[in-house]
Write a structure and sequence with these properties.
single chain; about 625 residues; alpha/beta; OB fold (Dihydrolipoamide Acetyltransferase, E2P); inorganic pyrophosphatase (n-terminal core); Diaminopimelate Epimerase, Chain A, domain 1; 7-stranded mixed sheet; 19 strands; about 20% strand; globular; binds manganese (II) ion
Length: about 625
């Protein structure tokens, strides 16, 4: 194991935040502005910067007023559900607020003040008094009566996104709304437009086909909207702000929690000021409004411990909240997906009242996650058996698993495991029509941190798209050997032992105090894509195995305590050196350890404790002289 201090890092724990942010490319002169962006929307986009937004909201409201059937297509991922959920919930409440609850007062004042103009609102009160709850047609729940708009909420039966053929749409619909997808489904837009159906797309995906038949609200195609790193739910939030102005409400900010959830789950770049601001605003305790999200925090035991300001950290959204929901949205039936959506839009009394409907739905998500994991493990096992000695001599593993890959959704997950097991980049894919394609995952310690760029620039790949260490690839089957040769030529002579870029190297544990750990923990809310959590190298920590133990149901966690700091080694298999040493401890020998990992605090029974989460490590056997030296101060 090797580690290098990130180039020009101050390596100064007393200037912790400055050091880390500088290492992430935030210059000294931008430091204050960057910190301000956590609390102020300094990017300054408004909904007006989105093309077609006025036409979009007026079209939606017109159909609501007409009592038309409105089809809402829930896109199958966390950002998709959040996008649809906040639009649905906002419009339901807006409708009730305006027409049902205080219909006389609100409407009269609004009309008297001339506030509601530009769209037809019938002033005949009796029309509103006869309003009946509509529900949404496809739900199998009897909570229908809570919804007033004539919704037709639909999800995909297959793996489609956007307006695809695997969703069944009520032929009597008058409006199709597509949050978080569907910008490019030009043919389908045309088909429905010809039937007299309006289509409103509220999206953030790159536009490759320009549609003339749908109202497209999309930051990518809006020249005035500066942030191209904002997820679907962010664009929907802007739409809600526009509705606030149209309807004289101020409800958009009730959905900041889900705006944050969607942006984190869609892995948006948090170096973008606007995205950062909305993620930070949405994880603040006062922003937590969604009942199902509250339950999810409980179910996943996602607790921010002693943190007074935040209900969740972005990293916990990525690792705990999003994966089971995404597994459900990928593998579940259309009804399953609709259940998740229903949980997000229904008041807790309604869903908990149905014999723990929310709990049941979440349990189903977990089941899907487990079956996804099983499927991944089976694939790994099959692939593993066929990896030969000579394969392992290669610097990069190129694995043709055509025989074993049945579900392409899990190749990325399997490649990731294989990359960390063999500590080398893995290309895992299958051949179809003489074309080899699949997923690449690069092990965290691989010295070349620009693997994707290398593949792209080799000229041998047809495509290599995604992040540097996790991306999709494709090239003609006939190129496999020349690509293996290319990797050999590039990396064959290189020292490929794991090498980590670290923010700090601490060579004496005495130089960090519990208050440093506390400060590090207190900044945990900041980390996300683009501004990754800081990594530390801790050197020469003596090992006394009396203070180590094996934890967990599978006994696969090693906890080592030294100077009142818990060093946690999670998910260690039988080949793990630390585990082996602990199991066959020889007290006559002396060891020390170098660790690469992350620092923070854990809370157990309300008591905070300094903690190091170990990513990688190396054990060194010490001579007796070195040990003597340790005791001479
Ligand atoms: Mn999205």
């Amino acid at each position: 194991m090797k580690y290098n201090l990130i180039k020009d890092s101050r390596n100064d724990i007393d200037q912790f935040l400055k050091t880390v942010l500088e290492n992430r490319g935030i210059k000294d002169e931008d430091y204050e502005e960057f910190l301000a962006s956590n609390n102020v929307d300094i990017e300054g986009n408004t909904y007006d910067n989105l093309d077609n937004i006025k036409l979009g909201i007026e079209t939606i409201w017109k159909h609501i007023e007409n009592g038309d059937i409105i089809t809402l297509v829930v896109d199958p991922d966390v950002d998709g559900i959040c996008s649809s959920a906040i639009l649905f919930d906002y419009l339901e409440k807006a409708y009730k607020e305006i027409y049902v609850k205080n219909q006389n007062k609100n409407l009269e004042t609004a009309i008297n003040q001339g506030k509601i103009t530009g769209h037809k609102i019938d002033t005949n009160m009796s029309d509103f008094e006869t309003l009946q709850p509509q529900g949404f047609a496809t739900t199998n729940l009897t909570i229908k009566s809570d919804f007033y708009i004539n919704w037709d909420v639909v999800t995909h039966t297959g793996k489609g996104h956007g307006l695809t053929s695997d969703i069944s749409i009520n032929p009597n619909t008058k409006l199709i709304i597509l949050p978080d997808g569907g910008s490019n489904d030009v043919e389908e837009h045309k088909k429905w437009k010809e039937k007299g159906v309006d289509i409103v797309v509220i999206d953030h995906h790159q536009i490759t086909n320009v549609s003339n038949d749908a109202i497209i609200i999309n930051n990518q195609s809006s020249d005035n909207y500066t942030n191209k790193d904002f997820s679907g739910v962010g664009i929907v939030y802007r739409v809600l702000q526009a509705f606030d102005d149209l309807l004289f409400l101020s409800n958009a900010d009730n959905y900041l929690d889900l705006v944050s959830l969607g942006n984190i789950s869609d892995v948006m770049n948090t170096l973008s000021y606007e995205t950062r601001f909305f993620i930070q605003s949405g994880i603040k305790k006062e922003s937590l409004k969604n009942d199902f999200l509250k339950l999810l925090l409980k179910y996943t035991k996602t607790d921010t411990g002693n943190d007074f300001n935040y209900f969740i950290y972005p990293v916990d959204v990525s690792f705990k909240i999003a994966p089971p929901l995404n597994a459900m949205m990928r593998l579940g039936t259309a009804e399953d997906k609709l259940d998740v959506f229903t949980c997000f839009v229904s008041p807790m009394e309604a869903i908990e009242g149905r014999a723990g409907y929310a709990r049941k739905t979440y349990n189903k998500c977990i089941k899907y996650k487990e079956s996804q994991d099983d499927e991944r493990n089976q694939l790994i096992e099959l692939v593993d058996k066929n990896i030969t000695e000579s394969d392992l001599e290669q610097p990069v593993l190129v694995i043709d698993a055509t025989k074993y890959i049945t579900n392409t959704e899990i190749t990325g997950l399997a490649a990731m495991n294989l990359a960390s097991k063999y500590k080398k980049p893995v290309l895992l894919g299958k051949v179809a029509n003489n074309f080899f394609s699949g997923s690449v995952r690069v092990n965290g310690g691989f010295p070349d941190k620009h693997f994707r760029t290398l593949c792209e620039q080799s000229g041998l790949f047809t495509f290599a798209q995604g992040h540097e260490s996790a991306f999709g690839f494709g090239f003609p089957k006939s190129s496999i050997q020349s690509i293996i040769n290319f990797f050999n030529k590039t990396y064959g002579e290189m020292d490929l032992q794991d090498s980590y870029d670290v923010d700090f190297i601490i060579n004496d544990l005495n130089t960090i105090s519990p208050s440093d750990f506390y400060r590090i923990q207190a900044n945990k809310y900041l980390w996300g894509r683009g501004v990754e959590e800081p990594v530390f190298a801790l050197e020469d920590i003596p090992l006394f195995f009396v203070s180590a133990s094996l934890l967990g149901e599978k006994k696969d966690t090693v906890k080592y305590t030294y100077r009142n700091i818990d060093f946690m080694f999670f998910k260690r298999d039988e080949n793990d050196k630390m585990k082996q040493l602990l199991e066959k401890y020889d007290p006559k020998k002396n060891y020390s350890i170098n660790i690469v990992g992350k620092l923070g605090m854990s809370t157990f029974m309300g008591r905070p404790k300094c903690q190091v989460i170990v990513d990688d490590y190396e054990i060194k056997e010490k001579s007796n002289q070195e040990i003597l030296d340790d005791f001479i101060f």
